[in-house]
Automatic annotation (TrEMBL), chains A, B:
SUPFAM superfamilies the UniProt entry points to: Nudix
Cofactor or coenzyme needed: Mg(2+)
Organism of provenance: Nitrosomonas ureae
This protein's record includes keyword Nucleus: no
One Gene Ontology term of the molecular function aspect: hydrolase activity
Domain of life from the UniProt record: Bacteria
Designated name of the protein: ADP-ribose pyrophosphatase YjhB, NUDIX family
Domain Nudix hydrolase: residue ranges: 36-158
Sorted UniProt keywords: Hydrolase
Hydrolase in keyword set: yes
Length: 181, 181
């Protein structure tokens, strides 16, 4: 950030009075431009014993597998964001179920939210950000080709707990050193 | 948003190619300035059969009661944010426990996260954003003076479930029409 989005003057990085962290503050209109972490929301679309995966058509990790997930928009709920992303990336309709995983990624200032979901029909096809969309069983999971650890890890929990017959919420942290897939 | 924070040219509100929502796009450097919902993170600090409440020293709802909670910062985890806000608003040290409530407020593009937490000592006092900080039992709860429905409702669940001996995660939505305290 170099310029004030309110008045176009230059901003300076400084700790405002009464604050404890440096912020971008406008040199002219004095507005403080706070920067906040972003939410990434997705789901595990379930159909019988399979789940729906997407092969990424975009960088980073183009050609690797992931769940339908993306940045939450203003004026929607977490569940609406998860359903919208699934429609956009896999042209798939889902009924969003329980929240299953909440992972903080502090090094990139993101928090991931993964819901369980019921896939409502088989009329799915790749959206513009996907090369391929397919249903896979546990035996068919491409564990070595998963794009992101923040997707890989909840899915490991998911299949283990599905076999045990009980799902628990996972609240966890992935730090930089661990984030390589 | 009127000006580009990257180059100071004017921005225009338009739907970028391949997108479906209007965004602020720079008329000169073409950067798209996305706007995303914000996370508010707090906790229920527990001490024996009491919890710690804060009386707000700032608007909105100055003089009304709430839990320690505030906007999540970049480069922290959800649990770190909850502990930091509790230290800032109540000068209180807590050990953050289970995630207890996740409420989407789509009309103001916020998502609230409330953890259960263990208060570690009784050496608390009001921070700069609080007029008063005190431990209250269920019988002493100022239900009619709670600042926000998004705090009031999880606390109603909390005391009910505490009496029943089992806590469950609450994922819910508060819409505009319901948001008045
Ligand atoms: Zn300015
Ligand atoms: Zn620009």
């Amino acid at each position: 950030m170099k310029y004030c989005s309110n008045c176009s003057a230059t901003v300076v990085l400084m700790i405002p009075e009464g604050d404890s962290l440096p912020r971008y503050v406008c040199s002219t209109c004095n507005i403080i431009h706070y920067q906040n972490p972003k939410m990434v929301v997705g789901c595990i679309p379930e159909w019988e014993d399979k789940i729906l995966l997407c092969k990424r058509a975009i960088e980073p990790r183009k050609g690797w597998w992931t769940l339908p997930a993306g940045f939450m928009e203003n004026n929607e709920t977490l569940a609406q964001a998860a359903a919208r992303e699934t429609l956009e990336e896999a042209n798939a309709r889902v009924e969003i179920g329980d929240l299953y995983a909440v992972y903080s990624l502090p090094h990139i200032s993101q928090v991931y939210f993964i819901f369980r979901a019921k896939l409502l029909d088989l009329d799915f096809k790749p959206g513009i950000e996907s090369l391929e969309v397919k249903l896979v069983s546990e035996q068919e999971m491409p564990w070595e080709e998963m794009a992101f650890r923040v997707i890989h890890d909840p899915l490991k929990h998911y299949f283990k707990e599905r076999n045990q017959g009980k799902f628990d919420l996972h609240v966890d942290v992935i730090n930089k050193a661990q984030n390589a897939p």
